[in-house]
Structures are given as structure tokens and as C-alpha cells.
Design goal:
Length: 446
């Protein structure tokens, strides 16, 4: 609650008169002081000694007037910690705008520069007016604490999966692109959170015909940010390739060997129920240091974790997007132009990014030739052709991630070793060892 500056005794006494049901243990005390664009105010919050303050306040009966913030103080517990923005929005209603807030805060700073602030302990000041030349931005941050101390792990285990709901599914490659790749939007149960770079398990229905046991879980890299594609914090997106098997001699599809889970997902109807487990994974987490360059090398559906990275940095209004000071470099390998996954999104990201902050290189194997041996262009050739930049960025602290089919790594390592030693005079094994030791080299293949 916010009251004009006064003594705690007076306020508690007044509350006792207004609300006789409040016990002495519900006394209020000063928790912090903040400066607003008007007068100095003191923030008071309840110190009810109970795990369930709502029950203590009347078991759900609204005996407390609306808007006094006693049951939930957004300044202390909510998504607007210390900003005072919620109170301004309530007071100004439809007239509120973030631009007006900036102007008011700047005026407050000018006033503070002219008048010495007295009787306020500097250690208790939560916010103050930003510098005159500051750019004020609103950012979604209500799930930013998920990786403050570790990351979410195993909300549900594969042995005891939970139910999720498929909301939407669509093919995301052209008709002439080989295979079938689909984007799935899934509603998770409440409380099942994840962060960028983690994976989700899906347990297909039925039993294995050979063993008579339930199917094993299949792990999929998550393709959305922690907020989900619809920014509700309750959805997750997956990028799934339908796994089919063709006889190498006859070229005929053998349906008995098709991927059980991928075909189940690619055929699932909207609003059908899925069994899921997780999240899991610490290998592919984004760097905490937003000044570091991020290099991402993907083949096919290996773009999934990098879509989550890039949406966090260049699409959604996250603190990471506003504060990112490094360079993001995506190298994506696909067979045809129509097989470029999320092409429209990547184009928009290029527009959103600040100059020189996002670079995307495509290796379209059936349409492009490499300059090394004149053969098809794969991701290892793109890196080799730009090896000087690749090595330089890693030597300066960049973090590199690889994701895709496991067959991608041997040719990448072989090519980099050859270029490093023959063209740049580097000891490749030593370099790679240093980058791994420094946490700059991350691989997730399947």
C-alpha cells in the first residue's frame, strides 16, 4: 500500500479503526522507499505471518477494499518491481503512456538535482529517474527468474508424464522440399516452465510390438522462448521432422520402420492430448553475458533451439533483447530454398536487429556450390570459408552451438581441423580444448 509519508504508528492505528478484524500480527511496517514523479512516498506491505495470506485475510471473502495492494503488492511481488508503473497506470487510466512516464521521471530528476533529498536512506531507494538521455523501454520479464538459480528440470519424469494439449500444427516447408517438417504449438499444464535451449520429451501412445512395453520417450529441442509463441508462459513449440524409412535397394517406403513418435505428432489433430515430460537440458543454454557473440550452426530441425534464442534476442520485448550487445550469427543448412525453416521469421529478425548484430548464412546443398572443392555447399564449408572470423570471435569469447543430425559433426570437425592447421597455422586440438574448457563449445545432435 502507498500512503503519504507519515509514521507507521499512525497508519497502523488508523487501520485498526477501519478494519477491527485485523489482528496485531497483521501490523504494517516500512519495507522500502521509492521516488515517484510526484511526491516522495513510503511503501508499506503486510507482514502477515502465514503461508496463505488470502486465507488469513478472510478465507477468500473480500473484506479488504479493492486496490489497496494488501493481498498482492506488485511493487514487492509482481512483474513491475520497483517501477511504480502499475500505480501510474491505475491513476491515469487510458491516458497512461510510457512516454509520459519518461517525461515525468525526467522532470523529477531535474527537481532532485536542485533539491537535496533528506531523511531517506539511500540503501532503501528502489528506483530513481533515469538519466536525461536514457531511452525508456517496457520489457516482459515475468518469467526471467526461471534461470536465476539454475534452470527448470523435470516438472514431470518420463515414468510419470503429464498431459498437454496440441493447439496447432502446420507444415513449414515448401511442397518441393524433401520430407515433411511441421511446427507444433502445445499447451502445457500450469507450472511446467522451461528456458531457451532445453528439451521436452513426448511419449507416443500404444506399445512397442516387439517388446510389448510402452514406447520410450522421444526428446525434442524446444523451439520457443520461455514465454511461448503466444506469450502466455503456458505454451511450447516443437519443430518435428516426420521420420520415414525407404529401402536403399528398392527405394520403397517401409512403413514398419517409420518413426513412431514423429508420425504420431505430425498426424495429431488439434486439441488432442499428448503425454509429455521434462523439461531437461543444460548443454544448450544461452550465455548469461549479453555482450558475448552467439554463433549457431544448425542442419534441418536443429534450428529449433536457435529459433528460441533469436526470438528472445530480436522478436520479443525481453530485457535480453534490449540489452544484447553481442553479435548473433546463424549458419543454417537445408537441401532447398523452400526448405529454409522459419524463413519469414528470420527475415523479420534481420529487420529488427540493429546494424551488424545479426548475420544469417544459408548452406543450400542442392542449389549452392562451395569454393573449397566445388561440391555441394554444407554448413562446414560456410564456416571454413569464413574461418578467420569464426576463430577470431571464439578467441574473443564468443559461444558456439551446434544442433542437428549427429552426422553433421564429423565433417565439421574434420574441415575445421584442416583449415585451422593448414591455412591459419593453429593447433586445432589445443584450440578446441581451450574453447570447451571455457564453456564456449556446445553440441546437441541426435
Amino acid at each position: 500500500m502507498i500512503y503519504p509519508k507519515s509514521t507507521g504508528t499512525f497508519i497502523v492505528t488508523a487501520l485498526a479503526v477501519l478494519y477491527p478484524n485485523i489482528s496485531p500480527s497483521h501490523a504494517f511496517q516500512v519495507t522500502s522507499v521509492r521516488q515517484t514523479n510526484r511526491d516522495k512516498h513510503v511503501i508499506f506491505s503486510s507482514t502477515i505471518q502465514s503461508k496463505d495470506r488470502i486465507a488469513k485475510a478472510g478465507g477468500g471473502i473480500p473484506i479488504v477494499p479493492n486496490g489497496d495492494c494488501r493481498l498482492f503488492n506488485p511493487e514487492e511481488e509482481g512483474k513491475l518491481q520497483g517501477t511504480g508503473a502499475l500505480f501510474d497506470r491505475i491513476e491515469k487510466g487510458y491516458e497512461y503512456s510510457i512516454d509520459n512516464t519518461l517525461e515525468a521521471l525526467q522532470k523529477q530528476q531535474q527537481q532532485d538535482n536542485m533539491n537535496e533529498v533528506t531523511n531517506i536512506n539511500p540503501s532503501t531507494v528502489i528506483t530513481s529517474a533515469p538519466p536525461m538521455d536514457a531511452e525508456l523501454k517496457s520489457a516482459q520479464h515475468w518469467l526471467e527468474d526461471l534461470d536465476a538459480n539454475g534452470v527448470p528440470q523435470n516438472f514431470a519424469k518420463a515414468s510419470s508424464p503429464v498431459e498437454a494439449t496440441l493447439l496447432h500444427r502446420e507444415r513449414i516447408i515448401g511442397a518441393d522440399a524433401p520430407g515433411d517438417i511441421q511446427h507444433l504449438l502445445i499447451r502445457l499444464p500450469e507450472g511446467m516452465n522451461y528456458v531457451e535451449g532445453q528439451s521436452l520429451s513426448v511419449i507416443p501412445p500404444g506399445v512397442n510390438e516387439k517388446t510389448g512395453k510402452k514406447h520410450s520417450p522421444r526428446l525434442y529441442s524446444i523451439a520457443s522462448t520461455r514465454y511461448g509463441d503466444v506469450l502466455d508462459g503456458r505454451t511450447v513449440s516443437l519443430c518435428v521432422r516426420r521420420a520415414l524409412y525407404y529401402d536403399p535397394v528398392t527405394g520403397v517406403e517401409d512403413v514398419s520402420k517409420k518413426g513412431v513418435c514423429s508420425n504420431f505428432l505430425c498426424d495429431a489433430k488439434p486439441f488432442s492430448t499428448l503425454k509429455v515430460a521434462g523439461p531437461v537440458g543444460k548443454t544448450m543454454l544461452m550465455p548469461k553475458d549479453l555482450e558475448k557473440d552467439v554463433i549457431m550452426v544448425a542442419t534441418g530441425t536443429g534450428i529449433a533451439p536457435f529459433r528460441s534464442f533469436l526470438r528472445r534476442l530480436f522478436v520479443e520485448d525481453t530485457v535480453s533483447r534490449h540489452m544484447f550487445g553481442g553479435m548473433a550469427w546463424l549458419v543454417l543448412g537445408v537441401p532447398t530454398t523452400s526448405g529454409i525453416l522459419y524463413k519469414n521469421e528470420l527475415d523479420e529478425m534481420m529487420k529488427n536487429a540493429r546494424p551488424s548484430q545479426l548475420k544469417i548464412d544459408y548452406a543450400i546443398s542442392r542449389e549452392m556450390r562451395n569454393s573449397i572443392d566445388g561440391g555441394k555447399l554444407y554448413v562446414q564449408h560456410v564456416i571454413a570459408q569464413k574461418a578467420a572470423e569464426f576463430f577470431s570471435r571464439l578467441d574473443n569469447g564468443a559461444v558456439v552451438y551446434f544442433c542437428g543430425l549427429k552426422g553433421m559433426m564429423p565433417p565439421i570437425l574434420e574441415t575445421l581441423k584442416k583449415v585451422a592447421e593448414e591455412e591459419h597455422g593453429l593447433n586445432w586440438d589445443e584450440k578446441l580444448s581451450v574453447w570447451k574448457k571455457n564453456g564456449q563449445w556446445h553440441v546437441e545432435v541426435y
